[in-house]
Amino acid sequence: MDHQTAPAPLLDVRDLRTWFHTFSGTVKAVDGVSFTLAPGEVMGLVGESGGGKSVVGFSLLGLIDPPGRIEGGEILLDGEDIARASEERLRRIRGREIAMIFQDPMTSLNPVQTVGAQMDEMLRLHTDLDEAARKARCIAMLESVGISRAAERLKAYPHQFSGGMRQRVVIAIALLAAPRLIVADEPTTALDVTIQSQILRLMRRRIAQTGAAMILVTHDLAVVSEMVDKIVVLYCGKVVETGPAREVIADPSHPYTRGLVDSIPNPRDRKPRLAQIPGAVPDIRNLPSGCSFRPRCPRAQAKCAEVAPALAPTRGTLSAACHFPIVEEIAMTGGERA
Amino acid sequence: MLAYAIKRLVQMAIVLWAVSVIVFLMMSFTGDPVFMVIPIDSTDAEIEQARRILGLDRSMPEQYWLFLQNLVQGDFGRSYVFRQPAMDLILERLPATLEIVVVAMLIAAVVAIPLGVYAGANPGKPLSRLIMSGSLVGISLPGFWVGMMLIFLFAVEWRLLPSSGRGDTVEVLGIETSLLTWDGWTHVVLPSVTLSLGTLAIILRITRAGMMEVMRQDYIKFARAKGASRKDVLYGHGLRNALIPVVTIFGLQIGDLIAFATITETIFAWPGMGKLLVDSIYRADRPVIVVYLMLVALIFVVINLVVDLVYTAIDPRITVK
Fold it and tell me: What's the pTM?
């Protein structure tokens, strides 16, 4: 993709740094993350737990609470830097421009308000519709996410819905004010496996219909592979690899991404053990020198301990932050790509 | 719902019966009441006669059975001191007590809940710390001392408010009230404030604790992600979820306040039933004490019922069974 011919980005995040100042030191949860998102584009934000994915999502909405703070960088929404926007401006952006879908539908709805009231609130905040029109819009939206008898269900409370149904309600609320960007933070992680693909398909279909862009935050590469246009891989608060979804998954150039891809179970692969990345994510307050992934990296060399690698084009359309990227066009898992 | 109502009524009856047993036993340990009703120079024969008339010569179970029968019929006997039905005496004083209790509860709720919400939603801010330190003072200060200080400052030093009595009252539906006259209000303020302080501090702390817990919940962040204002997030989404323990304590405090009103009424010479109780205890005026105790027990069980019903109104997940 050539930047000259690409459409003007809806979202342009530049060198975003969101840090948390805790008693035991500064946690650089997001440390110099950049990416762009075109209107209608779907992006996967991928990494292990503690990689800073959710913090990126909350930063976009200005929902970072003390001791956390956006220390630097820009979040340009249509060219407007919302990282420095006032709370009042942010309130008009939240829900209307950028909506968020949370991880756990069991806890993201208010237990003491009806579903109808929680949906209505979104429309009250962001539209001038009268009560009847708002109700009609809520009913139509609930039906569009696959909830039957919607008019009745508006009067129900969240505890009267199953987990999958609640996530449908959350998705309906997020879509109500027709936002241009949806941040979905692990939207299927808390659901039964059987429900996961239903919800993902629903999200893909509904979001394609509305033409909104989406950032899908997940630790599950298998989830993103079927949904997203491009992937940004985070490790310890930094982007380690980015590129079109197909390439990143088929043939990643960063050893970390390689490890993530190899740890997706593959039914055609009859290996007795699933590949895994050795070690664990390091304590983010006490990162290793040079490249953060070095202690777990099979390709690490002396240079990796000295200089932190910058994000640079590696092969084809991929960029990675690695001194020794996988440039050969071979897949470690071998013949399955033939 | 009907089954629930019947169940609760039966429970209430059992509780009140148990209280009647305890009250009866307690009373029978407090000395021989016959000496309260006879002239000081009575002969032994006169004493025996009085004892027979009062039924004190019968066995304890017999006496209790009589006591219970009369209780059920609403007959609590006559005050030994005032020579009129004890129930009438208490009911005459009840409105005065309820007045300062209700005003105290309102002061506590109106002041404590917003402060608690603020302190819970902004922990660590200097104002929150100030509020919390203030609430500790409120819990620690004894009511009688606060009452005396208020009298000293507002009545003696600054001469702004009266120090005692009930002021002008107006009769509404047969009940005397001070809350409809300006003079009445000037008399209500100090006792009510004195009475409210402890409750105010406790409700504030409970509200704060609840809000701190609620503010961590995902639905609060989700409400913020919708673009809701701070006020809507705190009061629309937060407070109602934090309210269950607040309502519980509030209910218990009403009972407490009626009991504590005894001290406050004594300090401010407020003619409520607390003051009547203290006077009756000094004079060993048993029937009045019995009515007071039974009435307070009744108020407690009714408040408990109301609190349980309020739970179901606050939280749809709670239903009555």
Answer: 0.83
